[in-house]
Structures are given as C-alpha cells and as structure tokens.
Design goal:
The protein is mostly helical and about 200 residues long. It contains ten helices and four strands; from the N terminus they run ααααββααααββαα. The radius of gyration is 19 Å and the shape is globular.
C-alpha cells in the first residue's frame, strides 16, 4: 500500500511524546505555547548559563576563588548560591594554553543544570556522545573550533556522581574588566568545551 503523506521523523521518541502532550494541552486551553517557549528560553539561555558565566568570571579575577574552584568546585559554586538540580557534585576543569577540556556524557546526558541551564539538544544526541570521545578534535571543528595540533584535548565523561564545568581561558585585552563585563564573554558552549570565550567587543 502506498502512502501519500510524509512521516514526521524530526523528533526522537521522547521529544515526540512531549510535543504530543503539549499539543493536547494547548488544544484544551490549559497552556499557552508562547509562554512555554519563553520559560524554556529563559532556562536554556539566560538563568543557567548566566550562573556559570558568573562563576567563571569570578575565577578569572579572584585567584583565591579559582584555587577553591579547582579544589572543591561544589562548595565554591554553592558559595555563590548556585546549587540544586544535577549540580550537587561538581568538578571544574581549567583550559590552558596547552590543554583544552571537553565535556560529554556517554551514558545518557548528565549535565549541571544549576550552572548551565537546560542541556542543548546536541549534547544529548548519540552522535555527539559517541564521537566526542572517539574524535574530539573533529567534533570541535564541526562546532567551528579549530585548535592547534599541539593542543591536547582532554575529554571528561560526566556521570550521575560527578559533573564538569569547563573554565575557558580569559581573553587578552580584558585587564581591568569587572566580573559582570567578563561574564558576558562566557557562553554555555565555552563551559562545555565546544567553544572559547567570546572575543571582547
């Protein structure tokens, strides 16, 4: 029997169930899709990543805090008020001129929501989870990040017991900047390791 319609293969099974539930609740007038989009965007791009960006900026300007973050990231991050969902057991890894850090969760999608917000779709996708370990340099290049051949790429595998925050290197020409201004240079992707801190404007 020939089908004359296209099947929607855009979503994975979980996303498809979420979309179906959202459609039903919208038709019943119980939710406003626009309001849901605003909430998701807030957690995905504003609240969570801004928390992590503030942690990084403080580490850039405060050597004592940076040392504490290296020694006990969970306590250092909690001191700034950022704790909770999947952020209970943290380790901070610092990029250097010689080493670049990349975070992945090969088993599922363990991710520190309290400092990074909602995980991006690609972080949970099987291709990223498998290839980040096998070919991290190639994966970074697909994100537009080409590192020198002499740079060591270290891959950290998050688990339910331990999650990671990448502290990107501070950009040059930012001497004298306050923490708020520096935090604007720190993106979610830089704290996962798929990008560098933004160039100063």
């Amino acid at each position: 029997m020939q089908h004359n319609h296209d099947h929607d293969n855009e979503f994975d099974p979980f996303a498809a169930r979420v979309r179906a539930l959202e459609t039903i609740l919208t038709r019943k007038g119980l939710i406003d899709p626009a309001a849901i989009d605003v909430i998701v965007d807030t957690y995905e791009t504003k609240i969570g990543p801004r928390n992590g960006a503030k942690v990084v900026a403080k580490a850039w300007v405060d050597p004592g805090f940076a040392a504490w973050l290296k020694r006990d990231a969970t306590a250092a991050i909690e001191s700034l008020g950022y704790t909770g969902r999947q952020g209970e057991h943290m380790q901070a890894v610092f990029n250097t001129a010689d080493t670049h850090n990349l975070v992945v969760c090969t088993l599922c999608s363990c991710y520190p929501w309290s400092v990074l917000g909602l995980p991006p779709v690609w972080y949970k996708a099987p291709p990223y989870r498998s290839r980040a370990v096998i070919d991290p340099r190639g994966v970074l290049e697909e994100f537009g990040l080409s590192l020198p051949a002499t740079t060591t790429i270290r891959v950290w595998d998050s688990t339910a017991e331990l999650r990671y925050l990448v502290v990107p290197m501070r950009r040059r020409d930012t001497e004298g900047w306050d923490e708020a201004r520096l935090a604007d240079l720190v993106t979610r992707d830089a704290m996962i390791g798929t990008a560098l801190a933004r160039e100063p404007a």
